[in-house]
Design brief:
By secondary structure, this protein is mostly beta strands. It has a single domain, classed as Hypothetical Protein Pfu-838710-001 (Beta Barrel), CATH 2.40.320. It is built from four helices and eleven strands. Strands 1-5-4-3-2-6-7-10-9 form a nine-stranded mixed β-barrel. The longest helix has 6 residues. The chain is elongated, with a radius of gyration of 17 Å. It starts with a strand and ends with a strand.
């Protein structure tokens, strides 16, 4: 079985650049309507950041009444590439039994289960502009929201993110912009 891959580049953009989005000919000529969704994502790790130190990320995302658990693993060989596995959940807590076949599996034991804590949460209002869907999903996505950890809260900054996901033979590409902006590039979420 092929390990699912995610290729991603994030670039921050100035908020005033978002105003011209509807005027871009490609966006203006879209046949499919843009879609809106509210997403709440909770990122989990141990107090000593065991997953982070191993290059892993564990997230539970809620969209409406649907929960998805995601495991991401950094790839040592390529700067913007990482493996990614997703599974549907019945609720808001991670289910380590779903880590079978993922990079998290070797660590997924009772001790890790007891130590996992929510580290931070993002709440975003996502707008997706479908650009193409002939075998490859390509979309421009704009996120506006907040990131919260304990009592601390900050606005997400505008980021343009190009993402390609490979699941077996299918590849999905996305360009995303998150809510602020300075032009910095990011390799990880």
């Amino acid at each position: 079985m092929t390990t699912p891959k995610e290729l991603e580049i994030k670039l921050e953009i100035a908020p005033k650049s978002l105003r011209i989005l509807e005027k871009i000919p490609l966006i203006h000529s879209l046949q499919a309507a843009r879609k809106h969704a509210t997403e709440v994502s909770v990122y989990f790790d141990t107090p000593k950041r065991k997953l982070h130190k191993k290059g892993l990320l564990l997230r539970v995302r809620r969209i409406g009444d649907r929960y998805t658990q995601t495991v991401k693993a950094s790839a040592a060989s390529r700067l913007f590439e990482r493996a990614e596995w997703e599974a549907t959940l019945g609720g808001a807590q991670p289910d380590l039994s779903l880590a079978a076949g993922t990079a998290l599996e070797p660590l997924a034991d009772g001790k890790l289960r007891r130590q996992l804590k929510p580290l931070f949460e993002t709440r975003v209002r996502r707008t997706v502009y479908p650009l193409a869907d002939n075998g490859h999903a390509i979309a421009l996505t704009l996120d506006r929201g907040t990131i919260r950890s304990g009592t601390r809260c900050a606005a997400l900054r505008d980021r343009a993110r190009t993402q390609a996901r490979e699941r077996g033979r299918s590849v999905r590409r996305r360009a995303r912009a998150h809510a602020g902006g300075s032009g910095a590039a990011h390799a990880r979420e």
